[in-house]
């Protein structure tokens, strides 16, 4: 029982830094893409599943953190235009550089091509930043939204 309480406390603390819902959705989406790419290239299920699980884990952690950072910038920069621009450009640039760097260091045969699917996150970041900023504008500058709905 004590372990369960510690896990719940850890998950609650992690919500400050990771958007769990978007992290899970991104993990399923990107894990599926990686599984498909690997499976149709190698026709090997176990290796494809392993690659998909790794990608899903990376996407949950980094994608969830990216979107939390996007939200932070969108609602904490006073100027609406700059808030939206910063909430898209800063996290997206960081993510692209991190992805390219990781693939380059790991020895991925085509690191640039492996980074291209990450471009999918940029429109999602823009939409998320705009949604969060609209919520802030509707609720007034004193109330910062944390959830959609």
Low-confidence stretches: 145-149
Major sheet size, sense and barrel closure: none
Ends distance? 32 Å
Helical content stands at over 70%
Q: How many helices in DSSP terms?
A: 6
Q: How confident overall, as mean pLDDT?
A: 84
The helix-strand sequence is HHHHHH
DSSP strand content: under 5%
Task: Lay out the secondary structure.
Elements: H1 2-14, H2 20-42, H3 45-76, H4 80-106, H5 111-115, H6 121-139
Q: What does the model show?
A:
This protein has a domain at 63-144. The radius of gyration is 17 Å and the shape is globular. The chain is mostly helical and 149 residues long. Helix 2 (20-42) packs antiparallel against helix 3 (45-76), helix 3 packs antiparallel against helix 4 and helix 4 (80-106) packs antiparallel against helix 6. The longest helix is centred in the middle third of the chain and has 32 residues, at 45-76. It has 6 helices and no strands.
Question: What would the keywords be for this entry?
Answer:
149 residues; mainly alpha; 80% helix; globular; disordered C terminus
Short structural summary:
The chain is mainly alpha-helical. Helices cover 80% and strands 0% of the residues. The relative contact order is 0.11.
